[in-house]
Structure formats: structure tokens, C-alpha cells
Fold:
Amino acid sequence: MSEARKRRPRDPEATREAILEAARTRLAADGPEGLSLSEVAHLAGVNRGTAYQHFETREKLIKATAEWVSDKLFRAVFGDPETIGERRVEQVDIAEMTDRLANFAMDNPELCRVWLLQVLSSEDPASDPFWKEYAGSQTRFAKTDLAQPGVDTEVLSVIMLAGAFLWSAWGRTHAASEDERRRQARRFAQECLRISMYGSLRAERFPEIAERLKPSPAKAG
Structure:
């Protein structure tokens, strides 16, 4: 066999990335329920055996895709991970950060849903870089004098992220254009900010609830 006909050396990392890129495409189109390794392999231009060498099961492929989404989320919402240590939570533009989260979710609804389900089913959510920074920033903020007392930051983090990712799936069904997606993202961001700033109940009209929400002495101390 001539030198020209010899097989080119394999590049496992490039093959893995091609498989992941194909998986992202299929997940964005069909969601996790419609993902099959065979279809992903075909789209990536590799045989099924090669795909199984890199990802033994569809669950492992979904997990790897969720990790990729986590990195993209991190960069979209917080910026370069290398600069996180330089960021003071008191100096963060909360409105801008909320806009960035809403816009990313609106542009990547299925991928965000894959990430959310993966993190919620994880035994150690803190191992995910985006969750760790998002929930951690909520906790750090709650300890400053900028926050209302008694915030349960874990619950708040789940509510905000689940809301953003579910709204993106809902809002996108009504978004026929890029401008409409931006409008839907803005609606979500605005309501998140309004609830965070003012809530939805008038405390003077619901004294029993106001009493229930007072921080306990142990927590307040």
C-alpha cells in the first residue's frame, strides 16, 4: 500500500469533540429523550463502535454534554473562570447578570434542561462549577448588608435556575424571531428582579405570613 493510501493517525480528542458536538445538536433539537448513540455517531461521521469507545452509554454522553453546558453557562453569566477570585459579590451588576442568564437560557433551552436535570440528580451538585459559583454567590450575597435577612440560598438558587430554564422552553414556543426571544428573556429577567426587590405580597396585609418569615433567633445570630 502506498504512503498516500495509509490511514491517517487517529486523533481521539478531535473524535470525542465531534461526538459531543453532534450530541449537542441532537439534544438541542430533540431533548434527552430523543438522543441515541447511533444517531449521534452518524451525525459525527464516526462508526457506532468508535462512539461507544468514547461514551459507553447515552447517560455518560448526556453527562459529558451537561459538563460542557456548565462551562458555557459559567462563561456567559460570570465570565472567565480565571477571574472569579477577583470579583467581589457586592460589586456585581445583578440586573446585568440576570439578563445574561435569561438570554443564555432562551438561546439554549434543551441544553439547559439537560444540565438542570443532571445537576438535580447528582449526589454532589457542588462538583459542578456553574452550580458551585451560582449558589455560592447567592450565599455570599446573603451574608452582606445588601440582602434581606433569612434567605435560604439553596432554595433560591434552584428556584431561579429552574425558572429560567423552564421559562426558556415556554417562552421559546412563542418566539418566532431573535427579537422576540430577547423580549421573552427580558420579561423573565424583569420579573426575577421585581420579585427579588419587592416580593409579591404586601407584608402589612399578611401579618401571619410576615411573622412566620421572621428569622429564628438561632439563624439571626
